[in-house]
Amino acid sequence: MMKYNIPLLPLSADLETKEILKKTNDANKALAELKGTAPVIPNESILISTLSLKEAKDSSAIENIITTDDELYQSDFNLKIFKNNASKEVYNYSNALLIGFKNVKKNNFISINDILEIQSIIVENNAGFRKLPGTVLKNEQTGEVIYT
């Protein structure tokens, strides 16, 4: 398996191509339509909950936490009864996403305390930020420190 090297910032790629700008415009139109439609939904939180659950499921798959829609919908999040461990992790991610969204909407920014709250929901502990010195992200070929 070939290792991926994280590129240095700023990226050398042009991110303002015609194609990207057109897609950005399409996304802007879709968001405007959603913004106009969402208030007429009787319970707007259903839409947000569904979207956060889908996002959590898809993002968790990147970390090899795989579950199905059926397993998620067969779990009872209120009673904390989950079909499997993957469903529980996806639920934690979704819940953290909703809490973070609510905090940003209320305060118009995200604070360190918000980040710690989100982290504690996802990992189910209050470990907080790393306290051990020497944790770095390195280029494995050159040993160059990319991020500390």
Task: State the gist of this model.
This protein has 148 residues and is mainly alpha-helical. 54% of the residues lie in helices and 3% in strands.
Would you write up a description of this structure?
With 148 residues, this protein is mainly alpha-helical. The protein has one domain. The protein contains five helices and two strands; from the N terminus they run αααααββ. Strand 1 and strand 2 form a beta hairpin. Helix 2 crosses helix 4. The longest helix has 23 residues. The chain starts with 17 loop residues before the first helix and ends with a strand. The relative contact order is 0.08. The model has no long low-confidence stretch (mean pLDDT 88).
List the SSEs and their pairings.
Elements: H1 18-37, H2 44-62, H3 69-74, H4 85-107, H5 112-123, E1 137-138, E2 145-147
Antiparallel strand pairs: 1-2
What keyword list fits this structure?
148 residues, mainly alpha, 54% helix
Whole-number average pLDDT? 88
> What is the helix content?
40-55%
Distance between the termini: 25 Å
Taken in chain order, the helices and strands follow as HHHHHEE
What general form does the structure show?
globular
Unreliable runs:
none
Total DSSP E strands: 2
